[in-house]
Amino acid sequence: GNLIPIHMVKVQKISELQPFLGFTEFDLYQDYKSSFLSSDLGRLHSIFPFKSFCRSLGLSSSRRGRHAYFPPEGKVALMLLKAYTGFSDATLIEHLNGNIHFQIFCGVYIHPCRPLTNYKIVSAIRSELACLLNVDSAQQVLALHWKPYLDNLHVMMTDATCYESYLRYPTSVKLLWESVAWLQSRLSAFSKDLGQRCPRNKFKDVSKRYLCYSKKRKRKQSRTRMMKRGLLRLLEKQVGQVDELLARAGERLSLPASFRKRFPIIRRVLEQEKALFAGQKVSDRIVSVDKPHLRPIVRGKETKTVEFGAKVNNIQVDGISFIEHLSFNAFNEGTRLQTSIALQERLLNTRVSAVAADAIYATNANRKFCTKNQIYTSFVRKGKPAADETQRKVLRSTLSRARATRLEGSFGTQKQHYSLDKIKARKEETEILWIFFGIHVANAACMVEKVKKKKKRNTT
After folding, report:
1. Which class for 132: exposed (0-12), middle (13-18), buried (19 or more C-beta within 10 A)?
2. What is the SS3 assignment for 455?
3. How far is 409 from 444, CA to CA, in rounded Å?
């Protein structure tokens, strides 16, 4: 009585499906599987250590709900597909329904007459994995699996980059207006629930002024300051009205989780913007109410002086990148050289003897450390030339050229082809997961070529 007929199941795991297939269908599936193994997706699947990776996450099979559609390896495979294809969640599910290779990649079978329709399963799985991800242990698994195919394990390249978040360019006026508009909607909703009149303020007047201001192509500094002053006064008034409403209503109002999370952020925005308006300096400035973890990262580039996203210090071994340090706050990557060397030696169990890094890493402390540990670097020499200066100059030039082409080129590849251009994750932990899979899917695609070359060398 509790058994569900096979034809009624929407999604089945392939491991459970095969015994129920008739001979003809099974032969057809084997043909699909053979074509999958020889495809780019099949080669990518073969290079990734799914079982050991899931063990490092502590990921187990879900027994009920939408998560149960996919086995643990299938959940990881879905995140790999997301980074590899660059599809949105809805488009990814649409392709998963109609592409048998995608289904084999994720280890599931979706009946053509009963496709998946809820694309939010992708974000649910992403949130589940984000809570379990430990970057260090996960990278240890990948490094151990890929080490036999890597050359020049003693050479380390390192540099930092910013993986930008999907965000409108923040200004004080935009941030204040978003806070004001959201608080006004909450005031209206709370007043309606309590059956009373909405508290009076200058929202309508300010909204008309903001509309006129936002339509102008050029805005005078005096007009911008007037707009800020009006928005600050209104926001302060609204915060006081909400506090008064909550104090009076007591337990009659059921506050949603989104309000409990966002209202303290808006309080901080008000405090920070008042300080900035008064000409004071503010630390840990909030640039987005939806993503309060983001901070301005001053990069000093020609096209972008400031970026908003995670700053990541990467190391690279034979074209394969690993995350050494990730932070949403700005940090000086020059202080991360010694920990970068330690990370490579821990991941690959090989002593580092040559380092290629940018000029920002060439501090006196780093130079002394490298000299003490007999590590050659790409840093421009200070002081008198050594006895073997000609050889050292050639080595420095080779290391610098390799870093500039391979490491910096990999940043562009990750951002253009592996979903790291503008990261659309909402939460801090899901953004970290997004970056992790983007970097390591790019690594896996690179490893496919390395494995192919290694096998060709062994056969010849």
Report:
1. middle
2. helix
3. 16
Q: pLDDT of 401-432, one tens digit each?
A: 888 888 889 999 999 999 999 999 999 999 99
User: Burial level of 380, CB count in 10 A (0-12/13-18/19+)?
Assistant: exposed
- Please give the full DSSP string across 316-335, using - where no structure is assigned: EETTEEEEEEEESS---GGG
Dist. CA 323–CA 175, nearest whole Å: 32
Specify the pLDDT at position 64: 61
Rounded alpha-carbon distances, angstroms, from residue 238 to 98, 184, 203: 50, 7, 9
Q: Which of 441, 446, 432 is nearest to 325 (CA)?
A: 432
- Pair 250, 229: CB distance under 8 Å: no
Closest CA to 163 of 337, 299, 308, 302: 308
> Using one digit for the tens of pLDDT, what is the confidence trace for 172-186?
999 999 999 999 999
Chain mean pLDDT for the chain: 89
Distance separating alpha carbons of residues 250 and 21, to the nearest angstrom? 61
Q: 153-170 pLDDT, tens per residue?
A: 999 999 999 999 999 888
- The predicted model scores a pTM of 0.89
* Contacts for 212-215: CB closer than 8 Å, 24+ residues apart: 213/173
CA distances from 152 to 103, 108, 156, 376 (A): 37, 39, 9, 14
Whether the pLDDT of residue 146 is over 90: the answer is yes
- List the beta bridge partners of residue 315: 158, 322
Show the beta-strand stretches assigned E in 116-265: 155-164
Between 23-37 and 40-47, two packed helices, what is the crossing angle to 10 degrees? 80
Q: Tokens 């559609």 sit at which residue?
A: 69
Reported in sequence order, the residue ranges of 225-344 that DSSP labels E, i.e. its strands, are 296-298, 306-317, 320-327
Structure tokens at 40: 């780019």
